[in-house]
């Protein structure tokens, strides 16, 4: 087989991407690339739903807890490393599985990143200082003014994304969105997106259950250990920032947990909005039997990619 294929398993958080990715990897005797940016960091285990040791043992995984929160690591870094790894794995395998909850990171591997201007580190430092002194809302308002188009689609609760967009706006004196959707990089493989679908009520129920299980597993204790480093970009994320508020005495634990559930549900909604724009996704039911899903994937490979 000359055609190399990347199977990109996507879907909202807590829907079962890890499980499906392992099933596909075992069926096709191949390896898994994680494109979940929160699972890159070894200090963040419980709150990012890192695959269990048993799951990791079922197939070879890459980009799971391979970095420290103290190391700078960008989507550009991930793209380069993932493409280099794919080149190596495709020498021995015709199919590789990628599992991702981070749409930007998945798309970076599939089609490359847009070409942005180089940013002056002073601008980034100023924006981080603005975040610390004036809060997230000040960044949101500035982005709405400078780039109303991107403001409509960006995760407004993610300071890293807001700062990234604003630093480009300030550097180039033009909207961040004007750099998006440029001609993409050529890849030496084809991609089949496999999306896991479920009713919204089911997704929200699974999210609520997962958060409860995380708390039972010791998420609060993990957050307390990380609290001294709460200003790091990696920790500006759902599951940790709400517990930091509790640790600082700004709310009760019950309220913090309810906020984690609410913000995770919002995140899942944004994930689905991102995915619905991609009409090439093969959607499979979350509760389908593994054999049924494998048959759907095999049929699509035959008709679309190997025809």
Automatic annotation (TrEMBL):
Q: Which UniProt keywords apply?
A: ATP-binding, Magnesium, Nucleotide-binding, Transferase, tRNA processing
- Site entry: Interaction with substrate tRNA: 102, 124
Question: What does it catalyze?
Answer: adenosine(37) in tRNA + dimethylallyl diphosphate = N(6)-dimethylallyladenosine(37) in tRNA + diphosphate
Q: Which InterPro entries match?
A: Dimethylallyltransferase, IPT, P-loop_NTPase
Q: Where does substrate bind?
A: 13-18
The residues that hold ATP are 11-18
**Region ranges (Interaction with substrate tRNA):** 36-39
Q: Which GO terms describe its molecular function?
A: tRNA dimethylallyltransferase activity
Pfam families, from UniProt? IPPT
The Swiss-Prot or TrEMBL record lists the needed cofactor(s) as: Mg(2+)
Query: Which E.C. number(s) belong to this protein?
Result: 2.5.1.75
What residue stretch is flagged as signal peptide? none
Q: Tell me how this protein assembles.
A: Monomer.
Record family assignment? Belongs to the IPP transferase family.
Q: What does this protein do?
A: Catalyzes the transfer of a dimethylallyl group onto the adenine at position 37 in tRNAs that read codons beginning with uridine, leading to the formation of N6-(dimethylallyl)adenosine (i(6)A).
**Name of this protein:** tRNA dimethylallyltransferase
* Species in which this protein is naturally found: [Muricauda] lutisoli
Q: Which gene encodes it?
A: miaA
């Amino acid at each position: 087989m000359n055609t190399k294929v990347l199977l990109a398993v996507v879907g909202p958080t807590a829907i079962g991407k890890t499980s499906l990715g392992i099933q596909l990897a075992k069926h096709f005797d191949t390896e898994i690339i994680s494109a979940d940016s929160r699972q890159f960091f070894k200090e963040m285990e419980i709150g990012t739903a890192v695959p269990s040791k048993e799951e990791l043992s079922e197939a070879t995984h890459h980009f799971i807890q391979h970095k420290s929160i103290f190391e700078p690591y960008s989507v550009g870094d991930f793209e380069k490393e993932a493409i280099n790894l794919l080149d190596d794995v495709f020498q021995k395998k015709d199919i590789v599985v990628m599992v991702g909850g981070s749409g930007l990171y998945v798309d970076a591997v599939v089609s490359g990143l847009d070409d942005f201007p180089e940013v002056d580190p002073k601008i980034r430092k100023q924006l981080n200082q603005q975040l610390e002194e004036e809060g997230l809302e000040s960044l949101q308002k500035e982005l709405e003014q400078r780039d109303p188009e991107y403001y409509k689609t960006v995760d407004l609760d993610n300071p890293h994304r807001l700062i990234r967009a604003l630093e480009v706006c300030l550097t180039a004196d033009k909207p961040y969105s004007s750099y998006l959707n440029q001609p993409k990089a050529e890849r030496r493989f084809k991609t089949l997106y496999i999306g896991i679908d479920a009713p919204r009520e089911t997704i929200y129920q699974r999210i609520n259950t997962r958060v409860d299980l995380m708390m039972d597993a010791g998420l609060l204790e993990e957050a307390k250990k990380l609290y001294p480093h709460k200003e790091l970009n990696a920790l500006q994320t759902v599951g940790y920032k709400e517990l930091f508020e509790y640790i600082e005495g700004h709310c009760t634990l019950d309220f913090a947990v309810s906020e984690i559930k609410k913000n995770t549900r919002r995140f899942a909604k944004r994930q689905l909005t991102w995915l619905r724009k991609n009409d090439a996704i093969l959607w499979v039911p979350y509760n389908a039997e593994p054999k049924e899903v494998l048959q759907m994937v095999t049929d699509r490979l035959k008709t679309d990619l190997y025809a």
